[in-house]
Amino acid sequence: MKKTVKYVMSDGDFDSQYGHFYKWQIEFQDGMNAEYLSKTETQNKFFEGQEVDVDITTREYNGKTINKVKPVSTFQPGTKPSFKRSEKTEEMIVKQNALTNACNVIGEADVARIIEVAEVFSNWVLKGEKPEGSKDLPF
């Protein structure tokens, strides 16, 4: 809701489980009084004569009604720019993964066999060429 600030006054400070706060009393043109808590000694949300869009919540504390005020957030979360790897980069990642897994299957002794198995793995992932019989299987 939109309200015009009539008067702003500091009302002390205190420590809580959430840190140190400064309390402000805000009076609006329509006669409503509210409390605002700030983490900084010089709050920058409410100034006399300013029209602000606010959220007001009311609660009871020790038999007293307290209006809590806070400015409506205008924060608009940004969207991450979509990041697209090049097709060549994707292919290199698949080939490196295939090489690692070929080493896991064959071991480290036979480099030619490792590359042969890695090619079978990467061809299956990149081209859908599934090995057909036991002669095409790398293990």
Task: Describe the secondary structure blueprint for this structure.
Layout: E1 2-16, E2 19-28, E3 33-38, E4 51-61, E5 64-71, H1 87-106, H2 111-127
Antiparallel strand pairs: 1-2, 1-4, 2-3, 4-5
Helix pairs in contact: 1-2
Question: Would you mind describing this structure in some detail?
Answer:
The chain is rod-shaped and about 85 Å long. Strand 2 and strand 3 (33-38) form a beta hairpin. The chain has a 5-stranded antiparallel β-sheet, with no helix packed on it. The protein has helices at 87-106, 111-127, and strands at 2-16, 19-28, 33-38, 51-61, 64-71. The longest helix is centred in the C-terminal third of the chain and has 20 residues, at 87-106. With 139 residues, the chain is of the alpha+beta class. The protein folds into 2 domains: 2-71, no CATH class; 87-127, no CATH class. Helix 1 crosses helix 2. The mean pLDDT is 86. Helix content is 27%, strand content 36%.
Oligomer: single chain
Count of distinct strands: 5
Strand order of the largest sheet: 3-2-1-4-5
Radius of gyration: 33 Å
Mean pLDDT: 86
Helix-and-strand structural type: alpha+beta
Number of helices: 2
Number of domains as seen in the coordinates:
2
**How far apart lie the N and C ends?**
71 Å
Overall 3D shape: rod-shaped
Low-confidence stretches: none
What is the N-to-C order of secondary-structure elements (H for helix, E for strand)?
EEEEEHH
Largest sheet: 5 strands, antiparallel
Helix content: 25-40%
Strand content: 35-45%
